[in-house]
Amino acid sequence: MQREDGEPRFVVLSGCSGGGKSTLLAELARRGHSVVEEPGRRIVAQEQRNGGNALPWVEPLAFARRAMAMAHADFAYAAKLSGPVFFDRGLVDAAAFFCHLTDSPIEPLPGPVRQYRREVFFAPPWPELFESDAQRQHGFAEARSEYDRLARAYPALGYTLVELPKTDIAGRADFVLDRLFA
C-alpha cells in the first residue's frame, strides 16, 4: 500500500462539506486516477432508495457507524487498484463525526488509517460554492462546524493539512497532482 518513496498511496480529500471535493475527485478520475467516492453520500443514497433511517439527520449514530464500516471496506477495495488512490473523505472523517456525536476524543485509530498519505488535501469553506441538496440537507453553518472539527481531528492523528486553492477544477487537480508528483 506504499509508493516506492515509502509514502502511502492512499490520498484523502477532506474538509468542508460542499467545498468541491466530489467534483475534484471526478476530475482526478477523468484524468485516469483511481478514486473512492465519499462513504456518506453512498450511504445516504442507499438509505433514501431503501427507506432506511441511517441518515445523518434521522439516526446520526447509525449513519456514523455505517460510514466507519464503509471506510474500512473501502481499504480492501482500494488495495486492488493500482497507483495512487484518491478518497473523497475517509475513516478519519467518519470517526470524527462519531466522536462529535458521542462527545468522545479522537484517538489514534487502529489499522487502515495509517495507510493514508500524511498530507490531506483540505477543501476550505467556500460559501459561493456550497449548495444543499437531497443528500446534503444541512446548511453552510453546519458545514463550517464540520470543517472545524476535521481541522482539529486530522492533525491530532498526525496528518498535515494542505489547503486546496479556491480556483477552477482543473487548477485544483493540477495543484494536487503537482504536490504529489513534483
Give an overview of the whole structure.
Strands 2-3-1-4-5 form a 5-stranded parallel beta sheet, with helices on both faces. Helix 5 links the parallel strand 4 (119-123) and strand 5 (160-163). It has 6 helices and 5 strands, in the order βαβααβαβαβα. The longest helix has 20 residues, at 60-79. Helix 2 (39-50) crosses helix 3, helix 3 packs antiparallel against helix 4 (91-102) and helix 4 (91-102) crosses helix 5. The protein has one domain: 3-Layer(aba) Sandwich (Rossmann fold), CATH 3.40.50.300. The radius of gyration is 15 Å and the shape is globular. The chain is of the alpha/beta class. It has helices spanning 21-30, 39-50, 60-79, 91-102, 140-156, 169-181; strands at 10-15, 34-36, 85-88, 119-123, 160-163.
Give a quick rundown of the structure.
This protein is α/β, with parallel strands linked by helices and 182 residues long.
List keywords for this structure.
single chain, about 180 residues, alpha/beta, Rossmann fold, five-stranded parallel beta sheet, 5 strands, about 45% helix, globular
Describe how the helices and strands are arranged:
Elements: E1 10-15, H1 21-30, E2 34-36, H2 39-50, H3 60-79, E3 85-88, H4 91-102, E4 119-123, H5 140-156, E5 160-163, H6 169-181
Parallel strand pairs: 1-3, 1-4, 2-3, 4-5
Helix pairs in contact: 1-6, 2-3, 3-4, 4-5
Protein name: Putative ATPase
InterPro entries: NadR/Ttd14_AAA_dom (IPR038727), P-loop_NTPase (IPR027417)
Domain NadR/Ttd14 AAA: 11-172
